[in-house]
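DM from R.C. (forwarded with permission)

"hey, sorry to bug you on a friday — could you get me a structure for this? deadline for the figure draft is monday and I only need the backbone to look sensible"
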Amino acid sequence: MVDRFGTTVLMAWFTALAAGVVMVASAATANSYVVRHCVFVAAALAVFAAIANIPLRLWEALHRWCLVAAIALCAAVLIPGIGLEAGGAHRWIWLGAFTLQPSELAKFLLVVYLAAYFARTGDAVQDDIWAFLRPLAWAGVLAGLVLIEPDFGTTLLLVLLTGGLMLLAGARLRHFLGVAGAAAVGLIVLLRLEVYREERLVAFLDPWSLPHSGGYQLTQALIAFGRGEWLGVGLGEGVQKLAYLPEAHNDFIFAVVAEELGLIGAGALIVLLAFLVLCTFSIARAAADQGRLFGAYLAYGAGLVIGAQVLISVGVNTGVLPTTGLTLPFISFGGNSLLVCTALLALAFRTHLEGDNLGRR
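My reply, with the result:
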């Protein structure tokens, strides 16, 4: 039986899904996107129901296999004949009626592995340098494979997830800052190695200097924000999505929200998504208070992934961060992202259910 808090979480999630359907219908230039998105939403409901009914102890028992599966899938997508190439990137595996994006699934699988690892090792990450480095090494392998695809946005997300859970697990700040510094240097080097990444950085610093090339997406998104003002031009009345803003139904859907619903509508959407993230953190804290560390790290991991993805997506749309391809959770078109974010939220929800049942005994 779901208690009042659980019902609130579900209602907030349903509201986000409904908002996603409405905005995809408004932003998409073809009805086929709307139909497919509705199919993805139906699949997300089924995924949530399934994962919310799987005992957490099963995920904990399989956590090493989750890591193996994540690495194997992210390596397989790079093999010619298995991975699909589109726009110079190898990110998808064709499965008949559905394309699997291993880098998206890797977020879920890495959360399970790290949660079980930190629950098992306890305080060892504070004093044992090998206990500290082991999860970093495996996460580094996974992030490296995702980067080769290339998928810089998801790579950054995996790094933030690992670092965030490591801090929550009690890693010493000096160790963490040393690794964070090395990672920052590595990211800067990676930005300079690829011309398109460096162009995106230049466009981020001054998008109007490259309005027809690297800064095109951001300038068009900023125009959408300017047109929306406080109350927006009206749902379905936006023009940027028609022929100007690329990926309007996907990576830049927040700009469409801002144009059509204004600052107030865009702000309300951020509040809704932030509420969902805060709910996962509340679930995690309650689980930690009950001594259920695996569930606590699962819920923290779910909140970190969803929250970081919201921040990056909104930051890219508003020009606060350089352009990178990440969807807005539960809102953007994209089956893999929607299903993975749903699965993560379901893990947190299952953690709450088990804690609620424990409290009633």
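R.C.: lifesaver. The CA atoms of residues 173 and 308 lie 21 Å apart.
me: no worries. The longest strand covers residues 89-94.
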